[in-house]
Specification:
Number of strands: 4
Radius of gyration: 22 Å
Helix content: 40-55%
Order of helices and strands: HEHEHEHEHHHHHHHH
Strand order of the largest sheet: 2-3-1-4
Largest sheet: 4 strands, parallel
Strand content: 5-15%
Structural class: alpha/beta
Distance between the termini: 48 Å
């Protein structure tokens, strides 16, 4: 198991409690790899979107079976709550459920959460390891953007000094079938706008949209 998966799932032990509450405002737990690992451990993850619907499913399919001494569909259930505010949950579940908090602010405490929330779930493991290895202090928003660009996308905007450098980095990112989140693309544009050669270029669009880049290349080719 990766270091990231181990960190996110370390508190989930199905034999401890039948009902768990994942306080997950950033939807960390919805990654398919994490869900698969939880299923192997004996958990079912159920989103809490409607109190009546959740109670009907949990009580009928799970708790009733457990009370009858049967294994039921799973050893334990994780109520997935997509908010930091627990006031919307039923009181009895708050009393009986074991809570685990999974916000990116908690998992990546040295990085600005307003930036890390823009990073796709496929990159979070890489970012978690980079934080452990390279972040020596808490970083502000701008420094976090530079950190994510460097350690996730292997991109350092200050090193892009020519049009050839720009196209090399664009092609490297997009042909890896990756796109920069809008916030990061705008940051790259702000940095490159200090260089005369880039001031008239739609840098944010070029880094943020593979289809936009391909259209530009097609027009240039024509």
């Amino acid at each position: 198991m990766s270091v990231w998966k181990d960190r996110v799932l370390r508190d989930f032990v199905p034999d401890l409690e039948p009902l768990w509450i994942a306080v997950d405002p950033d939807n960390v737990l919805l990654d398919e790899g994490l869900l698969g690992e939880l299923r192997q451990r004996g958990f079912d993850v159920i989103p809490f979107e409607d109190s009546i619907a959740f109670r009907a499913e949990f009580e009928r399919r799970y708790r009733t079976e457990w009370q009858r001494g049967r294994p039921g569909p799973a050893k334990a259930v994780i109520l997935h709550w997509r908010s930091d505010d627990l006031s919307g949950l039923p009181w009895d579940y708050l009393q009986s459920g074991r809570q685990v908090r999974l916000s990116l602010a908690d998992l990546l405490p040295k990085l600005a959460p307003g930036v890390t929330r823009q990073v796709g779930p496929e990159h979070l493991g890489q970012l978690f390891e980079a934080q452990s290895d390279h972040a020596t202090q808490v970083l502000g928003e701008s420094a976090t953007k530079e950190f994510v660009l460097l350690h996730v996308f292997r991109l350092s905007p200050p090193l892009i000094r020519s049009v050839a450098d720009l196209w090399r980095e664009l092609l490297k990112i997009h042909y890896a079938e990756s796109e920069l989140p809008a916030q990061l693309a705008s940051h790259v544009e702000a940095v490159l706008s200090r260089v005369d050669a880039f001031r008239e270029l739609p840098v944010a669009n070029l880094f943020g949209s593979r289809s936009y880049l391909l259209n530009v290349l097609q027009n240039a080719w024509s």
